[in-house]
Amino acid sequence: MIIKIIKSVFTKQLLSLIIGLGFSLTAFSQSVDSIPRKKIYHVSYISGSIIIAGGLATDYPAIGRIKNKPSLSSAELAALNPGVINSIDRWALHQNPSQHLMYSKLSDEVEPPVFVILPALLIFDKKIKKDWLPILFMYGEGHVITFTVYNYSWFGPTFQNRYRPITYYSQLPLGDQTSGNNRNSAYSGHTASVAFTSFFAAKVYCDYNPDASKVLLYGAALVPPVVMGYLRVKALAHFPSDDMVGLTVGAVVGIVLPELHKFKCKGITLGMMAIPGASGLSMCWTLPTHETPANNTSGIASTTSTN
Hints:
The protein has 11 helices and 2 strands. By secondary structure, the chain is mostly helical. It has one domain (2-31, 42-73, 87-287). Helix 6 (132-152) runs antiparallel to helix 8. The longest helix has 27 residues, at 2-28. It is globular. Residues 1-7, 16-35 and 296-307 have low confidence and may be disordered.
């Protein structure tokens, strides 16, 4: 069972890379302008590969911990109190439970096409098309980072055990309510991944087209994750606040990651780290020091003595 879950998760994360590469190779085969252009992004394929490989490796054990949480006991179900749910999240407790499987399947099936279609639209921009490789690489890197944040951040399911809305629907079969996976309401990984995809596409387009309407583009980028969040609520998988957190995480990664790649950072080293109960990546940034060359020092001294 765990192998199927892992394969499913990694399939979703890598599907966009595989198909996106196909789109990009087609674009690259077309004629390109030979005039030298200023680079928008600086991508280190070595550091990026370490991040991707390290993220995938550390996500592997996290999936097992998250998916294999203990089942809910009858005492836990009996102690559930809908009255303590805030007014925003209470909407998730007023859904049609007979349709939750349909919406759950729909949200799963919509996700992979979004991963492919939105970034593929970027190749229709001639300036972006010429930089297909670093953009594709950043896109894969961002998905891994988004997934790793979901697995290891304090507000994710590794540290939080918030019950999904489905646990409150007593009219559903007991097995649907007591699944250990129902402890993973916080936060929505589906929404986070879709938000990263749409905001990454908007950010890249804005960087290559600074005169474009950022309000319009980022407003459009909100639509896919909001729709995904709606589907996840209807699937009784998350409360609205879980979707809001997922949207925020995905949007931040989608905007900040390309922005960081605009800078040519030197003195940054990456490695593996391990702390009790978790493992991951470590990053060390050595700040550059300024030393006055010896010849300049003598020049200053001689000038002083002359004056």
